[in-house]
Design a protein that fits this description.
This protein has 2 domains: 5-92, 434 Repressor (Amino-terminal Domain); 103-139. The chain has helices at 5-20, 28-38, 46-54, 61-71, 75-80, 103-113, 117-139, and strands spanning 82-84, 90-92. Strand 1 (82-84) and strand 2 (90-92) form a beta hairpin. It has a two-stranded antiparallel ribbon. It is mostly helical. Helix 2 (28-38) packs across helix 3 (46-54). The termini are far apart.
């Protein structure tokens, strides 16, 4: 099986999720080990993982779901590059240019990205509440 645009895009998302993961999986061998510790089916080989990362092959749906859970991302995003919006509708993830951000803000963004999806949701909710509280205070 050769490399296709879909396989290449999956490989890029997998590498991105690995880089942002709090689990600190930095090598293909570590990914194989961590994956096989959690997977109840036939263990994956280092060659299979190398093909995932090189964009030569994609894992099956059950493996994608486990990878997503391990890395704290949605399986829909990992598989297709689509994130679900607040009302459950699919949205394409877009690169966000951070203009005029301070060094501290960029550092916080980096830390935020390493959080699990659940933790990111909690932080987002807290920020929304603080922003509402600040707006209410300034209007009074």
């Amino acid at each position: 099986m050769g490399q296709t645009a879909e396989k290449s895009a999956f490989a890029e998302r997998l590498r991105l999720a690995l880089g942002r993961s709090a689990k600190r999986i930095s090598t293909p061998a570590e990914l194989v080990r961590q994956f096989n510790l959690r997977y109840t089916g036939k263990p994956v080989s280092p060659q299979a993982v190398q093909k995932w990362l090189a964009g030569e092959n994609r894992p099956t749906q059950d493996k994608i779901e486990l990878l997503a859970k391990m890395l704290g991302v949605s399986s829909i995003w990992l598989q297709f590059g689509i994130e679900q919006g607040p009302n459950g509708t699919p949205q394409r993830i877009k690169d966000i240019a951070v203009k005029d951000a301070t060094e501290e803000e960029l550092r916080l963004i980096g830390r935020y990205r390493r959080l699990s999806a659940y933790q990111q949701e909690l932080v987002s909710g807290l920020i929304e509440q603080l922003a509402l509280s600040a707006n209410t205070s300034s209007e009074a």
